Amino acid sequence: MATKDIAMHEKLEVHEVLLFKTSCVKKGTAMLELVEDKDLKQILEEDVEASTNAVKKLSKILEKA
After folding, report:
1. What is the pLDDT of residue 65?
2. Spatial distance between the Cα atoms of 40 and 57, rounded to a whole number of angstroms
3. SS3 per residue for 6-59
4. pLDDT tens, position by position, 10-50
5. Contact 48, 29 (CB under 8 A)
6. Among 11, 35, 61, 63, which one has the highest count of C-beta atoms within 10 angstroms of its own C-beta?
7. For the whole model, what pTM was predicted?
8. Which burial class, exposed, middle or buried, applies to 28 when counting CB atoms under 10 A from its CB (0-12, 13-18, 19+)?
């Protein structure tokens, strides 16, 4: 993907998704402390991990743009 060629509105959209995924990580991490159900805790842990990976990838895209 040639990220240097993305338009300004695309950069803004990537930034918006980055903010959302960052919020997901923060909320999921906070909820992990409150959840007692083993299965729900596993789902939250997986979501936090996936969101963290997405944040890293989106950050790289914005750095290169």
Report:
1. 81
2. 26
3. CCHHHHHHHHHHHHHHHHHHHHHHHHHCCCCCHHHHHHHHHHHHHHHHHHHHHH
4. 999 999 999 999 999 999 999 999 999 999 999 999 999 99
5. yes
6. 61
7. 0.81
8. buried
